[in-house]
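User: Sequence recovery, please. Input:
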């Protein structure tokens, strides 16, 4: 999962500051690397490296990011790589000079790579599918000839949209992307299923001049003081030229909105609205339905107190407590200077971080039957540690509720879920999972209730989702057993350890 931002405005000092501020707001979507590329009409200026946003960008880096438009990216690596060479945005000098930042995962990347090298005759220097996406866009755009007007090259916007249409016909998978064309403007586009989020907003200054912002989440736009224009639609491309003129086109013959439901379960910030669905409202509805399910399945539950696993379990936990008529308490204090354990590359790092990240308040647990609520359970190692913490400080019984169904299948659209053999729910019954994480009782949200919770929160504006990590049904691309095996081989913890150990070596794909 990654976060992207693109900005075009009248003042270069404001643009670079807003790019930085926007990436800080998106930091939850990736803590491995960050990057910004800006353009001052004649040349690009770039800063990217491993690390958090406020570590990557110092004042002297910001000072060199000149220009009135730019794009930015925060990353965590889907396959565990932490090489700074794969930090985004990526850049190519032909045609026009282009940079691109991408959130998602291309499921036919290997096939695309061979065609990019041997048919398009372009150079790819990293293992990143985002660089492949950039080169496909560049290749398709290179098939058109810019018109000369009074000696100046002019790129017709329809030619740009035609290039995106051809890109959509070649690429499978998820992609929300922002691209910058030197001397022309900012381009944003989204895959035909809208799997990954992308939204557009504008802010007017006192002189009436406009700043256009594209970002992964609406919270970026509200933080930067923008008026929201709307989500980039599935299969749509939106181009804002240097004069601020907006053009848009649906560049796919049959787009269907099926966004990833896990954005609402875990990844997105609760103060964001994605495709018209407030994330906070979706998590409230998840808690309500989960509470009703507990009443239905265990009416004599005897729960004394409901506690969240902070932070992403908090909203659902509050509503579970309200629905049950049981006291809600905060039992764990979170150290906010430890990263999100879900996106840490390697199980040893995740397990070591749990005790540093959460500390129990003994008085809240002593002698009580405690229901812990989390957004989901993936590997179960973190859940097991947290349950033991609760027991260590005196909980009489520990129950556990997941606001999402059991995770059973890899997510191939940009979420770093491990090999399925590492899922706690893989080939286990509910009772076996209870034993594995050490709880007295366990309940999962049903898939139907999860989908209805998100649908209800959005008043039906979206009624279909990608739920592949729960069902194994993938909304786009031909996902074969062989492809899933390759994904799992790259994502298991042993592969990540080996990958991280070798990250200083950059593999060159292009040798024929």
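Assistant: Recovered sequence (512 residues):
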């Amino acid at each position: 999962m990654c976060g992207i931002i693109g900005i075009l405005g009248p003042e270069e000092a404001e643009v670079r500051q807003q790019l930085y501020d926007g990436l800080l707001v998106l930091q939850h979507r990736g803590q491995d690397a960050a990057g910004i590329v800006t353009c001052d009409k004649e040349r690009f200026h770039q800063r990217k490296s491993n690390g958090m946003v406020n570590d990557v960008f110092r004042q002297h880096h910001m000072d060199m990011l000149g220009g009135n438009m730019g794009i930015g990216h925060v990353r965590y690596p889907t396959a565990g790589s932490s090489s700074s060479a794969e930090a985004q945005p990526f850049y190519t000098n032909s045609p026009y000079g282009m940079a691109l930042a991408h959130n998602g995962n291309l499921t036919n990347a290997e096939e695309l790579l061979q065609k990019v090298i041997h048919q398009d005759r372009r150079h790819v220097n990293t293992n990143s599918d985002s660089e492949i996406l950039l080169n496909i866009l560049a290749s398709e755009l290179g098939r058109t000839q810019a018109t000369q007007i009074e000696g100046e090259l002019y790129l017709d916007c329809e030619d740009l949209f035609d290039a995106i249409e051809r890109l959509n016909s070649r690429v499978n998978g998820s992609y929300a992307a922002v691209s910058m064309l030197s001397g022309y403007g900012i381009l944003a586009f989204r895959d035909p299923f809208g799997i990954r989020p992308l939204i557009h907003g504008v802010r007017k200054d006192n002189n009436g001049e406009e700043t256009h912002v594209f970002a992964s989440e609406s919270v970026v736009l509200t933080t930067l003081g923008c008026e929201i224009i709307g989500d980039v639609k599935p299969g749509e491309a939106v181009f804002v030229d240097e004069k601020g003129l907006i053009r848009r086109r649906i560049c796919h013959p049959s787009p269907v909105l099926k966004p990833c439901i896990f954005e609402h379960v875990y990844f997105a910030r609760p103060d964001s609205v994605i495709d018209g669905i407030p994330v906070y409202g979706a998590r409230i509805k998840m808690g309500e339905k989960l509470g009703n399910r507990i009443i239905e399945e265990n009416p004599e539950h005897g729960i004394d107190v409901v506690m969240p696993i902070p932070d992403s379990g908090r909203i659902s936990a509050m509503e579970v407590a309200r629905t049950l008529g049981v006291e809600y308490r905060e039992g764990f204090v979170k150290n906010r200077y430890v990263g999100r354990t879900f996106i840490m590359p390697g199980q040893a790092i995740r397990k070591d971080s749990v005790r540093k990240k959460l500390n129990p308040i003994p008085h809240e647990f002593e002698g009580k039957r405690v229901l812990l609520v989390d957004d989901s359970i993936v590997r179960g190692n973190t859940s097991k540690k947290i349950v033991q913490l609760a027991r260590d400080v005196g909980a009489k019984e520990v129950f556990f509720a997941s606001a999402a169904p059991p995770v059973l299948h890899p997510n191939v659209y940009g979420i770093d879920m491990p090999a399925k053999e590492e899922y706690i729910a893989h080939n286990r019954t509910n009772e076996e999972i209870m034993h594995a994480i050490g709880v007295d009782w366990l309940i999962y949200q049903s898939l139907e209730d999860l989908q209805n919770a998100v649908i209800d929160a959005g008043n039906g504006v979206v009624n279909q989702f990608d739920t592949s990590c729960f069902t194994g049904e993938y909304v786009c691309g031909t996902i074969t057993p062989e492809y899933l095996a390759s994904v799992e081989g790259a994502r298991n913890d042993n592969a990540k350890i080996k990958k991280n150990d070798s990250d200083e070596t950059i593999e060159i794909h292009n040798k024929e």
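The longest helix spans residues 279-297.
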